[in-house]
Every structure is written in C-alpha cells, then in structure tokens.
Give the backbone structure.
Amino acid sequence: MAIKQLNNAYIIHFAAGRKPWTEPTLPHADKFWKYARKTPFYEAILFGPEAKKKREEAEKSQKTEETVKQFSKPQQGIPPQQGRPQGRPPQGGGRR
C-alpha cells in the first residue's frame, strides 16, 4: 500500500540523510532530476560545492579500489612465502 501511495505522490520529501542530488541512483531520484532540470538552480545543483565534494569522494574511492586490486593480484616472479606452517608456534630458541 505504501509503495503504491509513494508512486502516486505529489510531493516526495527526501528527509533522510541520503539525497538524490548526491546519490542519483536513489529510488525516485529520477523525479527529483526531472523537475530540477526545469529550475534556474539546475547548474548550481550539478556543479555546486556539495556536488564537487561527492565527485572528489567518488574519485578517491575509485583510486583506492584500483590500488587494492593492483596489490591483490599475485605478483609475477615472486615465489610463495616459505617458512613454518601457519598456526604453529616457533620451536625453542625463544626468550625466557
């Protein structure tokens, strides 16, 4: 019932922390953008400080993901780590 009412709403108040101007994939964000395009504030929404901040965060996140992927790949020419099996304590020679 609530979903049907939301689909027929005259006003959608984006009251939660997530907003369609910072997260354009939110439900009903398409309706926000449809009407935002008709206002003189459209460019301010697209290029304003809040949008710039979100773009910078997205770029930083993407660079972090690329770095993680790069260092997660097995390195060519590096042999697997040799040594004692994982989980066994060292034998003797420790401090007392």
Summary: The radius of gyration is 26 Å.
